[in-house]
Structure prediction request, 269 residues.
Amino acid sequence: MIAMASAPNRQSREQPKAEESYLLVMTATIIPAANAGVKRADPRLRLGDYKQALRYWLSYQHPAAERILLLENSGADLAELRAIAADENPLGKPVEILSVAGNTIPAGTNYGFTEMQMLDQGLALSKLRRESTHVIKVTGRLTFPALGKALDSIAKPFSLMVDCRKLGFPRRGYDASTQLFACSHEFYDRVLRDSRKEMNSTDVRLLEHLIFRKVIPFKGQPGYYLRFPCNIEPVGYSGFKSKSYNSPGQALTRVVRAALRVIAPGYWY
Prediction:
């Protein structure tokens, strides 16, 4: 079943598009699957997170959030989110809220399979996608205040902006952060669409591994940014640990990463 709510758009649809026009996509699962492995599993807490984040993006003045698509895949009641989109929208942004099927995590994979399934289905259904050139995918419970700064810091046009990183002990290798990435619709359709089918129980079990595998061939090519130009730290609570991203340990990591982006930009941390 597909449910949609659109807030009135106070900007003229006759105005020409900028070179990049963005669709911010908030992925949401209010009622996690039994095997999702998340500690922040209470639907009431999760709905509260999504409501808070939606209010934030509705007031975010950078073009990164000029259009908003919220996708939810657990069949939960979305009335409160629709009400926020309609009644608490100070900038009159166009908003779509779509309910898509698919909250069953196949054996041998993780939540990332349903995350990509949600994106594939939701982007295909979205009317706002047709009015934009790029998708910015965000974990719907989180906000990223430095998103606009990062987009303003890279050369245009661009095809991809994602943050790849070296894994710390005891893990080995590299992966890509999937809480936030931005890419052109053309790149998504060509490289990422249906990529969830490549996930397995061994080397590509996690979405972070899948995205890294899909984007690493573009390293060094113009218009492809495999490191954020600045720290884009999340605000909110981790789904897996249900801990705030403003904890002292996270603060130390932010400082180290920020320093390394300046003094050693080629080192992925």
The first helix runs from residue 43 to 59. The mean pLDDT is 88. Helices lie at 43-59, 79-87, 111-125, 147-153, 185-192, 207-215, 248-263. The chain has seven helices and nine strands.
